[in-house]
């Protein structure tokens, strides 16, 4: 007997695939709805492949799954002028269409993957808590904050349970090391290949990193606790500078990094560390994987692929 049925919208990427596998292992019936199929997926997972704006496909997928996790996103974090309109309008339009269809389908629960750094902006104190002021500094942050507000409003009027997950920087096996985002994976691949690694700024920016297995465990624990709702940070509660991360990756790989240094971009958050007291209190979760241990596991997975 399956534990429950859940649909991951935009679930073919790194986070969605890892979550789908974790849920499947724990007895959930899982569906993935995305534009492209997952590159690699273990477990019994149903897929719906097509544009996220197709009403017929949205309705067919939602009819089979009473719980929804929304991971879809295609946006840059920096406020690039020629992306302002497309970044905000297109992504918000798709989200609202799916949220509307979800209410029509009478879903029991809607979980949004938000952002653990972009929605807060530059915090006045660290670690930053869920109820601290939000001052997003990029279109991506404004978009995620807007999506959170729409979801809370709709949930209040319809009565379904809602969660807004604010992750830090998940990393680990399965992450795309050929992409444009993901410091750990990208730096590991480029250092191993002897390629220059772009570092924006002086490397002093502090971010929070959480290992993918810990991250998946956190999400599933929140889904399991029916009394929880609203926003939850998911991170390590510890900050590491970009320079420190690069040095530790270099040590793991056994090669020195060749750095290409350029000025930091406007809209980049200098310091972001997430308080995890709320998820610990409500779901009994704490990360268990030390950063160096996570790096070693990531390297074991990645090294044969380079």
Word description of this protein:
- This protein has 306 residues and is α/β, with parallel strands linked by helices.
- It has a domain at 5-172 and 210-235 and 273-287: 3-Layer(aba) Sandwich (Rossmann fold).
- Helix content is 39%, strand content 19%.
- It contains 9 helices and 12 strands.
- The protein has helices spanning 14-25, 55-64, 84-104, 139-158, 183-193, 212-224, 242-253, 277-283, 291-302, and strands at 5-9, 29-34, 45-49, 67-70, 109-113, 161-167, 169-171, 196-200, 206-211, 230-234, 239-241, 258-262.
- A 7-stranded parallel β-sheet has the order 3-2-1-4-5-6-10, sandwiched between helices. Strands 7-9-11 form a 3-stranded mixed β-sheet. A two-stranded parallel ribbon has the order 8-12.
- Helix 7 (242-253) crosses helix 9.
- The longest helix has 21 residues, at 84-104.
- It is globular, with a radius of gyration of 19 Å.
- It starts with a strand and ends with a helix.
* Total number of strands: 12
* Main sheet properties: 7 strands, parallel
CATH-defined architecture of the domain at 5-172 and 210-235 and 273-287: 3-Layer(aba) Sandwich
Number of helices, counting only DSSP H or I runs of 4 residues or more: 9
Radius of gyration, taken over Cα atoms and rounded to an integer in Å: 19 Å
Arrangement of strands in the largest sheet: 3-2-1-4-5-6-10
Structural category: alpha/beta
CATH class of the domain at 5-172 and 210-235 and 273-287: Alpha Beta
| Residue windows where pLDDT falls under 50 for at least 5 positions | 75-82
N-to-C SSE string, H for helix and E for strand: EHEEHEHEHEEHEEHEEHEHH
Q: CATH topology of the domain at 5-172 and 210-235 and 273-287, anyone? A: Rossmann fold
């Amino acid at each position: 007997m399956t534990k429950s049925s859940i649909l991951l919208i935009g679930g073919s990427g790194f986070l969605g695939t890892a979550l789908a596998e974790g849920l499947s292992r724990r007895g959930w019936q899982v569906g993935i709805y995305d534009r492209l199929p997952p590159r690699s997926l273990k477990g019994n997972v149903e897929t719906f492949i097509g544009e996220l704006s197709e009403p017929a496909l949205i309705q067919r997928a939602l009819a089979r799954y009473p719980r929804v996790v929304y991971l879809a996103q295609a946006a840059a974090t920096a406020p690039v002028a020629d992306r302002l309109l497309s970044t905000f309008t297109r992504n918000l339009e798709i989200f609202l269409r799916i949220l509307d269809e979800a209410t029509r389908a009478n879903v029991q629960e809607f979980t949004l993957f938000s952002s653990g750094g972009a929605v807060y902006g530059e915090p006045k104190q660290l670690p930053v808590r869920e109820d601290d002021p939000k001052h997003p500094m990029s279109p991506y942050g404004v978009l995620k904050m807007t999506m959170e507000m729409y979801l809370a409003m709709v949930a209040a009027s319809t009565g379904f349970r809602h969660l807004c997950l604010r992750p830090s920087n998940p990393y680990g096996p399965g992450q795309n090391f050929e992409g444009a985002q993901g410091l750990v994976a990208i730096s590991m691949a480029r250092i191993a290949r002897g390629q220059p690694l772009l570092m924006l700024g002086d490397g002093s920016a502090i971010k929070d990193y959480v290992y993918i297995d810990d991250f998946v465990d956190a999400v599933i624990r929140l889904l399991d606790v029916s009394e929880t709702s609203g926003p939850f940070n998911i991170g390590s509660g510890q900050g590491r500078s970009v320079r420190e991360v690069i040095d530790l990756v270099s040590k793991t790989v056994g090669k020195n990094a060749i750095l290409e240094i350029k000025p930091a971009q406007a809209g980049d958050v200098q310091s972001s560390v997430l308080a995890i007291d709320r998820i610990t209190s409500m779901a009994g979760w704490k990360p268990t994987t030390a950063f160096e241990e996570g790096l070693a596991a990531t390297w074991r997975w990645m090294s044969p692929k380079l």
